[in-house]
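thread: overnight batch results

M.L. [08:02]
morning all. the overnight job finished for the chain we discussed friday. pasting input first so we're all looking at the same thing
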Amino acid sequence: MPASKKMYLHRTAGGGETVVARRYDRDFAVTPAYRALLPDMMEAVDAIEGAPVPIQQVGVSGFKIPLRFAVEGTDQPIVLEATITGSVSLEASLKGINMSRIVRTFYAHKDEVFTPDTLTAILEEYREKVGGFQARVRVAFSYPMIQTSLRSGMEGYQFYRVAYESAMSATGRVRRYIRFDFTYSSACPCSAELAEHARDTRGVFAIPHSQRSRARLRVELAEGATLTLEDMQRHCQNALKTETQVMVKREDEQAFAEMNGAYVKFVEDAARLLYEPLAADPRIRDFEAACSHQESLHSHDAVSVICKGVPDGFDAVFMDFETLVY
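M.L. [08:03]
and the structure it wrote out:
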């Protein structure tokens, strides 16, 4: 191999030149003494770029790891791919954080069954290790549940987009959240009445319009309370009734049409229907429900947001409805 492929000249700060080997040493072993000599830019206070001000959140996003999650009714957890977002606040006097510590903290807990309470322990650990005054973390994943078809008895997997979230304030207060997405069908009450009017008065066959719709629930758990993902699904199903189906035969499709006729709903109805079970559940301190009916009549969607309205709680300012389209 030519020498140019193995060596190159490096100009030093003093203007001199030194020859540096261009190779990877597979046999090199790092000793504690060598590791102690490695430079750490996070400790270089004089190297701060830009305004020397605090940063409210700094951390990692999109870090993936397989984690174990509890399944209601069984002692066998399920392993799912989880996507992690974790951050801490940063003092004005510090250049940055060691972000790999956030990743390592999750690997230290990877064999545990993850719950919102697990995140509380993780927040305590990585806030201590990383050194931030405030810390927050979100674990997002897709959670499968078996759904039985309406009349044929077939079974299939319905998947729910879920996230466990925890946030720690500067005073050490921890708040635990569950985010849960639910997909349902919404038949328009106005369209249903107009279709019946056309049939009754003019003998015209008309079909009311309905659309695939989504609700995103975000609940804050009461102190010490436990809420399963199956609990979240039941709250949605009991309120809205018309969850989309996985396995369908003709009798199931007919049943779904009947169900949509029995439970017609505007987007305003959907929000109020969800309010009832969430407000009645003592395990839920606060909640926000954002609904999006992705219209088949209009070129835009109909949306609504409702919250419980407790002090220092949600304020129903959800505006990210485009994230409900998937």
